[in-house]
Specification:
Blueprint (H helix, E strand, L loop, with lengths): L3 E7 L4 H8 L1 H9 L11 H5 L2 E7 L2 E8 L13 E8 L1 H5 L6 E8 L2 E2 L3 H6 L7 E2 L2 H14 L2 E18 L6 E16 L2 H10 L12 E5 L5
Antiparallel strand pairs: 1-3, 1-4, 2-3, 5-9, 5-10, 6-7, 8-9
Helix pairs in contact: 1-2
């Protein structure tokens, strides 16, 4: 199955773009509008293998979308995106090899589920506790290891949480996903695990802009 990575530059002069950049649920719906309609939207993200990430690049806002079906930018409102490009990354996935060095980037949701003992000691803990600082870095090193990477260098940048409301009326639920951007260099130690992590995503919050792991091979001298 082909894996596509699209790069869509958004027009931030538009009120709907600015509004949806602040609302992770609205952005999820906008991303899913790039694909054919399915009877149940809840299953559409998995069906099309969709992961996305929003990046600020040279005074532009870029929406990165990975999927197993090529996106259709024409399904955006006219002018929503000022530029778009898609490429087949299957050759990159097929070229993953043990020992190959690369750079990586991932906006992830580093969280921990408190165990029974912790819950006994600290009352009123949420089901998932957001991790910060070195605890978030430790989380990333563990997840990167599971994703077949040996980390050489890394930087972590706290991002605004992905927030929004899912559902309508009295049944609407608040959505909030803590986010940290991890990027640096690494070596592939398990190509199959890395391929699975890139296609399936890393961690939680994958419908809301978390979990997309992108890589770029490094030249030998880098």
């Amino acid at each position: 199955m082909t894996t596509w990575l699209a790069r869509l530059t958004l027009d931030t002069s538009r009120a709907d773009v600015r509004r949806e950049l602040r609302d992770a649920v609205a952005m999820h719906r906008r991303v899913m509008s790039l694909f054919p309609d399915l009877p149940k939207i809840e299953g559409a993200r998995s069906h099309f293998g969709v992961l996305h990430r929003v990046e600020q690049a040279e005074r532009q806002v870029v929406l990165m979308v990975q999927s197993n079906t090529k996106v259709a930018p024409g399904r955006f409102p006219n002018g929503y995106a000022v530029d778009s490009a898609s490429r087949d990354i299957e050759p990159l996935l097929n070229a993953l090899a043990h020992g190959r060095r690369l750079s990586y980037r991932c906006d992830a949701n580093p969280v921990r589920r408190p165990g029974h003992t912790t819950r006994e000691l600290y009352r009123n803990l949420p089901p998932l506790v957001a991790l910060h600082g070195r605890h978030a870095d430790d989380w990333w090193h563990r997840r990167a290891g599971l994703a077949g990477l040996k980390i050489y260098t890394h930087l972590s940048h706290p991002l605004d949480a992905a927030v929004g409301r899912s559902g309508t009326g009295g049944g609407a639920q608040k959505v909030r996903h803590h986010r940290v951007r991890f990027e640096g260099t690494a070596e592939i130690v398990d190509p199959d695990a890395l391929r699975a992590a890139m296609i399936g995503g890393v961690g939680k919050g994958r419908a809301y802009g978390c979990g997309l792991l992108t890589i770029a091979p490094l030249r030998p001298e880098e």
